[in-house]
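Internal ticket - ligand job 361, nicotinamide-adenine-dinucleotide:
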Amino acid sequence: MKTKSAKPKPRRHAPVRVAVIGAGAIGADHLMNFQRHPSAQIVAIAETDPARARAAAETFNVPEIAADWRALPGRDGIDAVSIALPNHLHAEVALAMLRAGKHVLLDKPMATNARDAARLVAEARARGLVLMVGQNNRFLPEVQTARRLIDAGALGDVYHAKTAWMRRAGIPRIGSWFTQKKFAGGGCAYDIGVHALDRCLYLMDEFAAAAVSGQTYAQFGPRGEGDGAWGKSEIDPSRPFDVDDLCVALIKLKSGRTVLLEASWAAHQAEPDVNGTQVFGAKAGLSLPPLKLFKNSKTGYTTELVNTSCGAPGDNRMTHFVDCVLGRAEPFVKPEESLAVQKILDAIYASAASGREIRLK
Ligand SMILES: NC(=O)c1ccc[n+]([C@@H]2O[C@H](COP(=O)([O-])OP(=O)(O)OC[C@H]3O[C@@H](n4cnc5c(N)ncnc54)[C@H](O)[C@@H]3O)[C@@H](O)[C@H]2O)c1
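stdout (structure tokens):
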């Protein structure tokens, strides 16, 4: 598919007129956060479920409901869209919106394969539009403070990291689109592994991988066990569970540094939810959350709890996106970074399927 060349669109003056596409579980979070921005105006909701659409429009005082996202690209009076749809629709909808000149906030994962993700990056760049994947973990005070400490040299040379999001019983409802490959693209790696990976690569300030070895498992979902309560879409119990509920990967970055990634929707483990990152440097190491610094030396071992209460932006990907559209900020999550994350996720699945290490260009 060729990218049309187009003049960069000047960014908007306030208000930024936003349409939210998908009013399911996370769509409500999109709506709530756009409502918080004094220069954002939510002008439409696109949602196929009429009752869900009506309820969201009433709660957030939205004047227009579209019964499907396809009604929006040709419509004037919309500057930006926020996409909270099942994964298989991300790339298609985002591409249509970018081609129609709309700025796009896209929930994770960016797409269901790196080829589609690359198309989005090219289209947004060619048109001068904001395209940002809503990696909310990056906005956390612990992550922000940790990145500042690493940039300031507190860890010395960083050479390795471990990052994980391991749930004990948190499959986002067996029988929903989340547990079917044709709608979700992948299982826990795409759903929560993406957060752990993105957060870790952001801390290391390196996104390009040289090689990936991965393995995936499905021990709980196929037996109907490990169910969680997330998501609003319909359930069809007859749908086969054909995605991963645990994944593990060793990622070698271009610099030679390494990342160990673990993600699970369901596992026999003590804690209900383990979601954190450890970064290892030559001078010190850190872990989060909570943010702690560790030093191991001839004179002994020290551990320090770091205060993260100052100067961090908080979980505000929607308000930040509006600021980007207004030209007040540059996207904090760059589309090229999300493309690199997508390439690694694809490589994990390719490695699991082939039993080999996947080398990336
Ligand atoms: N950033 C995060 O922390 C986070 C958390 C949860 C989910 N997500 C992501 O957000 C996306 C949505 O997840 P969810 O949990 O809200 O799922 P959900 O199933 O609760 O909601 C999806 C909504 O999309 C609607 N929809 C489906 N097809 C449509 C179409 N053609 N036009 C308009 N609406 C349509 C459904 O009716 C449903 O209401 C997923 O990609 C998921 O990975 C991100």
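Auto-summary: Residues 21-27, 46-49, 52, 68-69, 84-87, 107-108, 134, 136, 191, 230-233 surround nicotinamide-adenine-dinucleotide (CB under 6 Å). Residues 158-281+337-359 form a domain with the Dihydrodipicolinate Reductase; domain 2 fold (CATH 3.30.360.10).
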